[in-house]
Amino acid sequence: SGYMGKKFSVIYTTSISFPHLSDLYDGKLRPNFSLNQKFALEYVISKGSAVGISYKYAYNKVRNDFAYNREPNFVKFNKFQSHSAGVYYKVFTSRNIAPLGFYIKPGLNFQYLMLNDFASYNRNNFILYNFKQIDIVASFAVGKNWILFDNILLGFEIRSGMPFASFIRTVFGDDYTIIEEYKGNRHTNKVNLPTELLQIGLNLGFLAF
After folding, report:
1. Which of 23, 65, 73, 83 has its CA at 20 to 30 Å from residue 147's CA atom?
2. Phi and psi at residue 180, in whole multiples of 5°?
3. What is the pLDDT along the chain (209 residues), one digit of tens a residue?
4. Which of 56, 78, 49, 52 has its CA nearest to residue 65?
5. Taking CA 37 as the corner, what is the angle to CA 186 and CA 197, rounded to the nearest 5 degrees?
6. CB-neighbour burial class of residue 201 (10 A; exposed 0-12, middle 13-18, buried 19+)
7. Cβ pair 120, 186 in contact under 8 A
């Protein structure tokens, strides 16, 4: 198994996410995109399948509420970051030898989320808050790989993920809460959900051995 007997691959994927559409600034909707960088170590376990572990970093900047812009330490953007580590399983079409060709890829990921410089008031005092939380993401991806010069891997991937906590808080949470910690955490979830729902990326890697 493995292309030319090579079973171990190192893969880098850069992708862009579905836009975060709830970014209102000065009365205008300004959708923005999260950028994702992912590294994976993959091992072929049969002619048509492989398993892997991955780490993904996502980053986005979202404008703070314009109502606070007269505060002396106001910053225009709060900064969203996501660190994800997970495992996945790839199944390739029957005509190809892994990791070559079309594949489907279910996976499970653990997320550590951070939001910095979230502008709000606390008892009439203006504060830039920082928030941290965790989430679990179930994902499913489809893609295709090509192999050049028997060593270089090129490909594309379309991935969809469901972050469970972010989905629940975004859909069922209270938009009008005055509890600052809840507001900040929900804002984090509202950025994380579209970041995970749809990602379109390019793969670049090499067959190590």
Report:
1. 83
2. -60, -40
3. 677 778 999 999 999 997 666 554 445 556 678 899 999 999 999 989 999 999 999 998 888 876 777 788 888 888 999 999 999 999 998 778 889 999 999 999 999 999 998 887 777 778 888 889 999 999 999 999 999 998 999 999 999 999 999 999 888 876 665 566 667 788 888 889 989 999 999 999 999 88
4. 78
5. 45
6. buried
7. no
Query: How far, in Å, CA of 16 to CA of 22, rounded?
Result: 17
CA distances from 25 to 20, 22, 77, 187 (A): 13, 10, 11, 15
Q: Which residues pair with 17 in a beta bridge?
A: 199
The structure tokens listed for 16 are: 């862009």
CA dihedral 94, 100, 104, 105 (to 10 degrees): 130
Report residue 135 as tokens: 């989430």
